[in-house]
Amino acid sequence: MKTRLATAIATICAAGLLMPNVSVATGFADFQQAITDGDANVKLRYRYERVDQDNIDKETNASTLLTRLSYKSADFGGFYTQLEFDNVTALGNENFNSTVNGNTNYPVVADPIGSDFNQAYVGFKTESLHFTAGRQRINHNDQRFVGGVGWRQNEQTYDGYRLRYDNQSGLNVDYSYIHNVNRIFGTDSPNSDLGGNIHLLNVTYKINADHKVAGFAYELDFDTANAIATRTLGVSYDGKVSAVNIHAAYARQNETGDNPTDFSTDYLALELSTKLSAVNVGIGYESLGSDNGKGFTTPLATLHKFQGFADKFLATPGQGINDLYVKASGSIGKLKLLGVWHQFESDVGSVDYGNEFNFNATYPVYKNTNFLLRYANYSADDFAVDTNKLWAMMTFTF
């Protein structure tokens, strides 16, 4: 908190230096006005999560509520501040393993109760530059490598400095230096933080309305989590050719810092989708390779988005993983539906891990009120165990 206060004071002083012709009284009045004219909102997200996992006798029935209070000041000479405070509460008995509540006789639902600042940063913005310092949300591209894990009640955010450049003609450069990652496990967990020297560079170029390319470089040198200290270089493409939407990505990863394993392995993704009548259909393949017993890792990703909603592959197996999937989506009025089927196998050794079916439905009940129903059925062959998960979620924003 002292660090944030010092940052805020330095920011205000800098504003005075940047605007020397503005009197102290006038500047303070403008600052007060910026605070008064800021926007505040409240988000409530209730979620029920049921987990039936073959190797644990008890079934999880987790009922949790996220309350998020957000405030963003108005502009003050290009400066502004963003504050976001979260509280996660369990409604009823904690019949689930939150990873910190000691209820290990239940399957895991990683939504620990507690309160914390989700975001607290100062920003400065011009027409083409945007600088932020403090605790902040960072999402790159489709969040396959860097994301906020927004699915969980306690979001993943980043402590550090971020500089973005937008030349208003398609080129965007996004660089962050991060000294700590605030993970989803809550402040009471020994796994709550990932400290280190973390460099995140993402460059995108929108060629035209139908084609966009990106290049990225991620140096993840952690203080203690040496096994996942990696350097990743990659490229991606998103576009449309005739009626076919294309997503393609390739990355190369090797060890960095004090990682004890010498390895070099690849990531590959390709998805093709199109619309048939009123239904969107797609087929995709994603491969996280393996070398020297080490699988390609993405520890900062929003992992729930990938390789099945059952979350059986949050950590890449040592033999890597290949995911072949097909999906279909469509709408019935305001009701949006999605179905996905996955077939998983190892990248090395042709091990049949298992398969999974996912279903998702969303419906806007009222203005600023949305309902979500989600289901995952993982059928194990040679990895993990059979698992069924069901979620029902209602989100309100004010």
TrEMBL record:
Matches recorded under InterPro entries: Alginate_export_dom, Porin_dom_sf
Alginate export domain sequence ranges: 42-259
Gene3D superfamilies per record: Porin
Highest taxon above the source species: Bacteria
Pfam family, one: Alginate_exp
Leader peptide range in chain numbering: 1-25
Keywords: Signal
Name of this protein: Alginate export domain-containing protein
Species of provenance: Alteromonas alba
Upper classification of the organism: Bacteria, Pseudomonadati, Pseudomonadota, Gammaproteobacteria, Alteromonadales
